[in-house]
Amino acid sequence: MPIRNRNAYAFLAPYLLVFATFWVWPIISSFLISFQNTRVNPWKFSLTVNWGRLFSDPAFYNALYNTLIILVIQVPVMIAIATVMAVLLNSPLLKARPLFRFAFFAPVVVGEVAYAAVFRLMFSFDFGIVNKLITLIGLTAVSWFDNAHAAMALVIIAVTWRWAGYNAIIILAGLQSIPDDVYEAATLDRVSKSQQFFHITLPLLKPIILFCVILSVIGTMQLFTEPFLITNRGGPGGGTETLGLLLYRQGFLSLNFGYASAIAYTMAALAVAISLLNLWIGREPK
């Protein structure tokens, strides 16, 4: 090996060592642990104790159902809102655009515990501002934390509020990369603004939106913070328990590391499968 190559690998060695220790080895180790019965001492190898339980565990199917419900409803709604927000932020008619961009992005940097506490107060049955507004228009107050459907809606609202602005900034970057000449030519051809949006903006934004969708799918598959902090660890009665919360409960509360590893790899496989499906749907026609 040339001296230049040896020097390069020598400089890379500290990073590669840290990468292998804290990334590669934990992935391999957790995969091996998923085939071990960690409920006995010492641990014993078993092909079916964890993976067999996975496909017959009602708690797993409940968490999978809740996660997919959030995925199917929240991700499209959030991406649609983010796209509209990005278009509005890109409008030359909007004054103080940097201020609005910061305001929309701000939820991402807010502490998770702080914003969860605020949401719990806002949606409180007795004194929350949301129920106050609902009763003002003549509707019945909603028990957000005691009804599974209402709690699921609350999780979806919270996740959308937190990440819509983040995706809007990404889509805004894509919007600003579209040449103005395209819109000028469309205007000269008397193409309306709505037609420009659907036939020019959206097709050119397709790769950016697809990127945001894949990021959102990966994030939703490992959703943990909102059901843990806002709806009190996946309540009521497991109505908002996600795969991420089930993994935490099995790994850190029950100390069943083998089953938790099997759940983790199932989450990763589902995230990859759904992301590949989105890539296939969003592929460019030949």
UniProtKB/TrEMBL annotation:
Question: Could you tell me the superkingdom of the organism this chain comes from?
Answer: Bacteria
Could you provide one GO biological process annotation from this protein's UniProt record?
Answer: transmembrane transport
Sorted alphabetically, which InterPro entries does this protein's record hold?
ABC_transporter_permease, MetI-like, MetI-like_sf
Q: Where are the transmembrane segments?
A: 12-35, 63-90, 102-123, 150-175, 196-218, 257-281
Localization annotation: Cell membrane
Can you tell me which family this protein belongs to?
Belongs to the binding-protein-dependent transport system permease family.
* Protein's UniProt name: Lactose transport system permease protein lacF
Species whose genome carries this gene: Rhizobium mesoamericanum STM3625
